[in-house]
Amino acid sequence: MGPTVKLDLTTILQTTGELQHFLNLGAARLRAEGPLPEEASEALIFAMADELENHLRMKRDQQGTASISDLRVWTQAWIDERQEELTQGSLPGGDQG
User: Fold this and answer.
1) In the chain, where are the structural domains located?
2) Is the pLDDT of residue 65 over 70?
């Protein structure tokens, strides 16, 4: 049985309980960027979603399969890394000084 399930980021975030963490990270990124037009704000959030989806796809491909637990761990790690980068000011727009 090969991989047959397409990654659906919204479903993954809801199922793993990480949706609120992702939204919190997005809000923090938007605050770090400063005032943005609505279109730019949406683009930033969609870019984050694309990055996370690519990360999960890569991890799944490396491992060959992915359980809900795997997806949760990978998602938490990705969010934690981005939050740390944001705190340190190393993400675009993350300069706090």
Assistant:
1) 9-88
2) yes
